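pasting input
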Amino acid sequence: MRVMAQMGMVMNLDKCIGCHTCSVTCKQAWTNRAGTEYVWFNNVETRPGQGYPRRYEDQETWRGGWTLSSRGSLKLKAGGRVQKLLSIFASPVQPQLADYYEPWTYDYDTLIKAPLGDDFPVARPKSLITGQNTKISWSANWDDNLGGSTRYGHLDPVVEKLRQESEQAVQFELEKTFMFYLPRICEHCLNPSCMASCPSGAIYKREEDGIVLVDQDRCRGWRQCITGCPYKKIYFNHKSGKAEKCTFCYPRVEVGLPTVCSETCVGRLRYLGLFLYDVDKVTDAATTPDEGDLYQAQLDLLLDPEDPEVIAAARRDGIPDDWMDAARRSPVYALAKKYQVALPLHPEYRTMPMVWYVPPLSPVVDLLAEQGHDAESKDVLFGAIDALRIPAAYLAELFTAGRTDIITHVLSKLAAMRSYMRDVSMGRDGDPSIPAAVGMSEEALYEMYRLMAVAKYEERY
Amino acid sequence: MSVHDGYGKVDGPATDALLKAGRFFTKWDETDDERVVFREGGRAGDVFYRDRWSHDKVVRSTHGVNCTGSCSWKVYVKDGIITWETQQTDYPSVGPDRPEYEPRGCPRGAAFSWYTYSPTRVRYPYVRGVLLEMFREANKRLGDPVAAWHEITTDPDKRRRYQSARGKGGLVRSSWAEAIEIAAAAHVHTIKEYGPDRVAAFSPIPAQSIVSHCVGTRFYQLLGGVMTSFYDWYADLPVASPQVFGDQTDVPESGDWWDATYLMMWGSNVPVTRTPDAHWMAEVRYRGTKIVTVSPDYADNTKFADEWMPAQAGTDAALAMAMGHVLLKEFFVDRTVDFFTDYVRTYTDLPFLVRVDDGEGEYAGSYVAGKFLTAADLGAADPEDAWKTVLVDDATGEPVVPNGSMGFRYAESGVGRWNLDLEGVTPALSMQGESSEPVELLLPAFVDPDGAGSVLRRGVPTRMVGGHRVTTVFDLMLAQYGVPRDGLPGQWPSGYDDVASPYTPAWQAEITGVPAEQCIRIAREFATNSEQSQGRSMIIMGAGICQWFHGDTIYRSILSLLILTGCMGRNGGGWAHYVGQEKCRPITGWISLANALDWSRPPRTMIGTGFWYMHTDQWRNDGYSADSLNSPLAKGHLGGMHTADALAQSARLGWMPFYPQFSTNPIQVAQDAQGAVDDGSAATPGEYVAGALRDGRLQPSIEDVDDPRNWPRTLTLWRSNLMGSSAKGNEYFLKHLLGTHHNVLGSENPKAPRPRDVRWHEEAPIGKLDLLMSADFRMTSTTLLSDIVLPAATWYEKHDLSSTDMHPFVHAFTPAIDPPWEAKSDFELFHLLAQRFSQLAETHLGVVKDLVSVPVQHDTPGEVSQPGGRVVDWRDSDAPGTPGKGMPVFQVVERDYTAIADKLATVGPLADSLGFTVKNVTFDVSEQTKKLAGINGVMPSGAGAGRPAIDTDSHLAEAILMYSGTTNGQLAVQGFRTLEKRVGKTLHDLAEGSEEKRITFADTQAQPVPVITSPEWSGSETGGRRYAPFTVNIERLKPFHTLTGRMHFFLDHDWMHDVGESLPIYRPPLDMHRLFGEPRVGEDGAAQVTVRYLTPHSKWSIHSEYQDNLLMLSLSRGGPTVWMSPADAERIDVQDNDWVEVLNANGVLVARAVVSHRMPEHVVYVHHAQERTIDVPKSEATGRRGGMHNSVTRLLVKPTHLIGGYAQLSYTFNYLGPTGNQRDIVATVRKRSQEVSY
């Protein structure tokens, strides 16, 4: 066992309002400069939707992440590293500007400076790349709130996949509408494929906290990392010629401030904290043969900071006591491991991502309402999980490599929390059979409620 | 496991060997399989981002915008440059078991600093070149700026030249001195030539930046100018609130959502429109609170719902009426619930007696509901007895006149008795019983989609009381909702599944599309939850239901659900109306200083909708008369009247204000009145005016509104983007008010009804305004149209105060930098203008008297001057009217126009001698004035010599806080002690212990500060509880400010009866085909589709104004859009992002389509404030710039909103007035050529 500390984040998608404040504060702080106009270290996607850059999840096209060789060993999806080394001068497989979007501005000056004419002056869009007039046809968030769904919705790789299984899956009709938001930053993976793709060794994982950074001095702009990252969270600064990415706000984290995206999250859905993990077991976990077991394998990597063996090993491996304290109080550990309601994004990429998500509940479908059931009552509570508008299969494609049973179990815990707490907030005794039905104690369910609902600043970070 | 077990698991041995060699010379820590490179980060790590993060200081400020966020922000500054902003997180805690207010904010706010240095920033004063040249020339030649202004504006050619140049570019840089001189000259000239009531100004929403609003308003009220309203103009005012509660609006802070155990969101898209508050809604679910949304589309908030009730747009009242049907039947008739019954007996008008009158004409032999029975009807003879409503004691069957009605509010006999204490009486809810006589009652209904009325026949039990046949409001309600009881005549629903009978669940399903079963179940759950939780069912209500023409009826039908179940006045229960921003928490200081009540009274305030409807000549394009809204049972009070006539009558009767007042300059009127008093021909100036109106020597301006003598002449806009945001009927503004190019597509319909009392000119005026001036920090539709544009400081460049209804704190704006370039704060602007104005006034105006005409006001004794809500028009009699009784109040005010600047900068003496009054509670502020003088210092000389200085923005902020009970505990306690004398119940304990607490401006700069419980508002924060409205009324038996002193289901005013809205009711959206000849909704075979045109707030604009931010545009579609359903798009062969044109008689909009299945058919969303400044090409339909969201809207004035002079239906600024609603509009969408030109 070799214990390492890793900064992690959990986002509770059940609370995300899709406001994009995180994206804006991040951009304002980090990337509102020449060369990174199109870059959003943090972005928020409406799902179903294509994401940013478009269809980044389509690894058949973009070749990001890891795959298993026939011998069961890890290899970069884009090809072995020698192959990459030998082909670094060739244009790598990576999204083009059009797949992100062509950033633009407007000739705002006209509004002030227009000479007397015969109509209102207007600010026209101008490309920030070419400086020419442009018609805006794509943006970093074009399909926000299902905009253009009937034209583009089928291009969502998850929709595409589910429809291959059943033509009836995910229909774009008013009555069947569902949506949720997926905020994304760099995953600061335990097994980062960007790093493995870099011919210059410019990408490194910080020893003390696992934050993955691009060394701006070492980067030679080969852009292999962009291909390598299956989340497409490394960007090419077209002015400096270097790769840039989310830094987990290390200049803030180092002095005890939360990341900008976390602190400014209006939905109060982001949690920051330490994970302890066994670095020696990462490769093994990442080579778990069955994709459906990858979540569990990743979960198993996370070490219990209360475990005396872990404590001893951590001390041996130079993890200071205050970091151990932080690990014990870590809300991300609580949500991921203790309550097991947070899940990794696309575990099948085998990068062992460290930004996890609590999947969202959603309204019940009309059918249930028409029949006059009360989805809130505990008698129909768990039955209703299957009748939620967001198909479990959709969430499973994002978070569990297709395992709907895990999704259903997590949603049941959220539903149980609500059902149990209803009695409490109505001044009645809590019903212990409710937490028991999802394998939790009353105390644990209540603690989880405090963390997810009351969620004080000090408890989130 | 050894590390070597992992060896070979990445790629293969050969690869590893090769790579190892490649990395031989570089030393770093990596996993043994070379999969991961570790390096120590620490302080030695990548410096680039560390440098980027550095800054010199962080300043607390906020955003002065009408979004109710009132979020405190950290503004980062480096090298004197604002770099970015993030939210403050230091709000005082709301308790250990609750989520906190941190971090309040939204992406729009986070992107705000972009404006500081953006290319759209207004850096210098600008004047339209055509005008500037003429002015410079004339000023030089004549040597007097006022004479120059006179010459330019009275020369028709010159006037035309610069008016028609508005909005067409050609702004040239000027200086502050010059721009201010032109403005000052225009103001002096207008007052001199036409009168101060031709000087108009508009600046909305004081709470968003209290000082900035206050200073400009104060300037205009010192002049005697006209401030037009905003809350009603924005259609944010729920008229149901004054109707039902006698209160403008009062709502829970969002932290109180946490107390709700059943939460509905009805027409309110919380994540978008209340972004910083939405988390409470998401979080309360985890307490087991059920969430239900009602919206026509799959709205953002539906994501959080347990259930979605997809009611078709505008049909919400049908759903609410059916829910009310279920609730009345199951919780009031089949079974009764003490919690509900006790509540409605004490706090509502349900037990009060209503006279049942004989039907007339074709309805003879049946009965109709009449007026409330009063003590006067029972023979009591004091004037106040006509204002005392009556109920029956359940125990004795005898009539009782309980405390608390309006008859106890002002009369000497009511001292100590204006309360809801029933003193042991149990009111009878129904007249059923031994002496009861059932009769068949006629009730109006509007079930036809074209809006035509019909009549329902349903029985009520009656009794004879004092010789009058009466029933109760409760009995009327059961009849109205169609809840049958044994032994009553009439036609009743056969059951919930009776499709044909209003207002059953099955009946509503046909209209709304919501399944009857769902309607029944949600109604049951809602009421059951209230019963079990003692009133903790809450409904968040929003613009999606408020901003309809019949928004008041929609609201009343929903409020009924809350009132019947005992939810109003509860923490966690009741209505949560979040549309606009009504809550300036330090209200007394703000409103008194803004209206300059310390120097002169009364101020001139105006209903915005009435002002714009008349002065932009939208009334000339009305296709219907006021009585086309009537019920078949109407008695003709609105008969033959045009809506303009209704406005004229309302003004004539002293119900609503109208300015200009008379076609004669009010300075002249004051002089004439004084002459009449002096020569003995009139006892008072008021008597003179009444007589002159009677014999026609004076003419109300509204009655010939298009005569040049009656035009508004100057309009100043600050903190406002009127032309790019709220101006419904935008193209009419351009045409008639401004006199420039426009896209009005329809022509005036020669067959449209002509007004009876308002004069019709064959040619409508083009260009009424002499001057449009605006102050802003960015270029908007408004600045583009302005003659003078002044560069304003941004929200990060000035001192100011912010508050909101959503949280209980006041906090500060603080300058992060000085205003750059030549920008100045609003405070500086108005002081400069006042100084130059005062100088020019020396020769042109001097000291004069001004006759001010104002309506009778709510919360003043004037509201008990017209008993019974009867329309009595003095014009129908031979005698002159009596000022203040069915006629406006006329008051002479002295104005020293040379001292405006001095007065602006000091607190005047009337503060001490008359005190400041809010909601009929007068605060003696003489002590506060002394304290303020100590803090701010006094002015050494001039008109305000020796008086407290309010000569800087922070001094004014200090004064506002000093004079308000919410921020000055001494005043809060004093106010409660004053109030409790009238009420006769203990109230001062609500603020006791806060006497020593005074929130200073410095306090608000340090941290957001929670306010003090004060009689200025209806709720209580005492003991650290969350604010919920009306808790003081419910817990302390303090009456609502209504006729009965209770919440009203029944409104008995003549006009309310005539339009059939005396009880909660469903009215369909306006049929624009019937009323205006617009196409019917749906497809018509041509390549176009007619749709309901809705303008909700955008996710990507800072509330209702700022759509031009590059960050927001980059995250969205980058320009104007029309959201539409796939079916509608297919009908016109439109794909996502295709250019389309949306048009009707009012104008045209060019935008790109967003096609999404979350949209219902036959409805489009054109988000608010999509202005013509960003990416708007020329229109195919007109060849001109393709409009903005309000180009296809127009004003539709509901006559019942004009009722005044009658208890809670009396005017107060922003409290009651016609709404500028816009939801009923329909428009036609067409695909256009995809080749666009600009």
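fyi Chain B touches chain A through 147 residues (CB under 8 Å).
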